[in-house]
Amino acid sequence: MSGVGVNKNKRRHIAYEWQDYAYRLAVELDDTERASLYMRLVKTNKRHILEEALTFVKGANNVKNRARLFMWKVKDLKKAGESGKI
Q: E strand or H helix at 71, and its extent?
């Protein structure tokens, strides 16, 4: 895979699929400054939880901070999974 530019001064090399997925999450949530946070999330959480949280955020209207809503939903889904609700 080729390097993907975060901004004009900084280029990152993406070598694995999970890195690409994490970067796409950051772009979708308009939070590329914290791309490393999404990389950690992708490595430590199940993909279906992240996908469900992203779908939830995409469906939300009038959201000031999409990244914050995404993080809240991931936490909520993980909590529900631990209690056996999902």
A: helix 66-82
